[in-house]
Amino acid sequence: MAPILVVCSGNICRSPIAEGLLRRALDRRFGQAAPSVSSAGTIAFDGNLPSPGSVTAAAERGVDIASHRGTALTDDAIHGADLCLCMAAEHRDEIALRVPSAADRAFTLKELVRLLETTAPAAPTGPETLAGRVGEAATVRADRGTPNPFDEDVVDPLGMPLDTYRAVAWELDEWVDRLATALYGPVPVAAEGR
To answer: Is the pTM of this model over 0.90?
Structure first.
């Protein structure tokens, strides 16, 4: 199982884009040592193709998700993840309901970024620090609650025009970049060119 599991509903729009963007951000930092990233959907059907709008919007941001195939979220995948990175609060809540022991490892993307940005900044670290940083965020959430419960979700663009997919991909790119920095510190100078 992948240490980072990105979760949305159908696993054909938001989570494949976020998975590709996060994989790129981590590969840029760590190369072959980067933590693996996968995605799944709470109501996904195994094998579904990504939506054409998602493929186009991701490609415009430099990420190829055309070969992605939808995957249904399983309890085994949840158990195997150090981080369940959710596109909406409903996905985080479903993970906590299905696998209560995973509640401290399940966050919306925006929630996790905001929580980590309230902690001491991460010094440039290696991929092995993922579980520790996730634990820090869980502690902060337990103490203070979710930083902005009114802005946790990434909009589902399914059935919307291409410009909506583009807006979602742009939003995800921005939040994923902030997440990578919050988890692992700034990109090392040696990795800038990757």
So the answer is: yes
